[in-house]
Here is the input.
Amino acid sequence: MMNLVLDQLLLMPKIKKILITGGLGCLGLNLAIHFSNKGYNVSLVDNLTTNVISPNSIPRALLFFFCDIQNFDQLEKIFEFIKPDFVIHSAASYDNPKNWIRDIKTNVEGITNLIKLSEKYYVKKFINFQTIHCYKSKKKIDEKCDKLPLESYPISKVAAEELLTISSLNFISLRLTIVFGPWHFNGPIPIFYKKIFKKQHCLISQSYRDFLYMEDFLRLIDKLLEIKKYDTSIFNVSSGKLYSIVEIFNKISKLMNKKTDFTLLKEKETKININSNKIRKFANWMPIYNINEGLRKQILWFNENFVGESHSHNILKNE
Here is the structure.
């Protein structure tokens, strides 16, 4: 009887373990809940600098470690305890454009620690989140376009990505457009929601951005975890559709059935047009949600929950 039970246990699929850095940020928290619901063993690391919920609100199925990824010794104890199969690196320092030292320590030194420990503990897959602000171009931007980061946040994230390329890890780095959904508190969508709700005047730039809804993003990460080997490692991730910031403002205003005054700034418009054909082919993935459906779900979430504090490395007049 005992041998039969042992045989059955050996045949059972092993529960995969995921470690998510920046686990109490928007992307990290959505990923944590998503993979926990799918049966993964999920652990979170966060230093509570730009977290979107407090540790007291973490779902009980998730294991949380208060840790700064700059701290190699503490981070190693976590790796030793968890022995993760997968690492999803969502932690980043980005909220103060003048704090170059923290950006370097978190984004460069932090990923160096994660790389070394992931190599030591034989992590099967390492997924890194990069920013599309590593580019400086108004053309259709693909992965071959030159990088020209102009602030400490994207500069340090570019350095981090380069360190990954010389590691021995099976890694993938995603250069992300704006991903919105639950706990999305940064950028024009939540700020416009708050201002429209309070009937406050808005300043809106003449710029265009790409917006990807969270459920499409989560489906992509699902697919990437299923792929065994990342022969190609760096990808743009976007919806493939550009919208002006004023159009986003008008859509939110219409969904809220509220109006407020705004001024369209006279500054020269900017377009960040991201080509994500490479990831679509590689992962057999395509966004499903259009901007109207995504914004409708976002507004419902804000109505039923809350809009937290916004953090941004860019000092934007309109957003």
